[in-house]
Amino acid sequence: MIEVHVQAFGILKDFIGSTEVKWTLEGEMTALSMKAFIKENFMVHPQLPIAVVRDNRYLADDAMIQDQDHLFLMPPVSGG
Amino acid sequence: MKVHISISEVPACHDDIMDFLRSDHAGAMALFEGVVRADILDNGDQVTHLFYEAHVPMVHAEAADLMDELSQQFSIHAIYFHHLLGNVSVGNTSIWLGISAQHRKEAFAAQSWFLDQFKKRIPIWKKEWGNQTQQWVVPHE
What we know:
Structural class of chain B: alpha+beta
Strand order of the largest sheet of chain B: 1-4-6-2
Oligomer: heterodimer
Number of helices of chain B: 3
Radius of gyration of chain B: 16 Å
Helix content of chain B: 25-40%
């Protein structure tokens, strides 16, 4: 089991229902499997791209999520 | 190259931008302002204001990366970037991008390039607010 602190932005906040949450996850998880977890559990549109960020860097799909990570979930940007 | 990057709930000051951009070697100063439009939402409601949020540390990191790339492609003297956070009403400016260069073509080209990249990479999100509804803007890729 690992515990992660998650902060969501934009439309992902609405799907997840909160700006900041703590999740307890079973077993190892990559950034890609975290995206799948989010889409399956929070009714996120399957086509919506999600970026997972740690330490101000976008995680590659094969990056491992670590216990006590502080992750940021980002939908496509729309500034300006 | 002089660089200014900021993001806050306080609008930029036009005179401050121009003072920052001015140089004896810059013959062109181009200032772009992005202004909130009264768009019509899907249900017919009209936008009254936009709400902006951002991952501020990443805005600075990504904007700095963009400016590094910009400096390798364009010969410019200075760049000033400011984006507002929070609520911005129709008719008001939400983004300022000032660039000075020796000649106008370089300034305009650099400005256009930066804005295109900004729209794809800088982690800022906006929500459209109408009189009765609200919706996040999600660009289609």
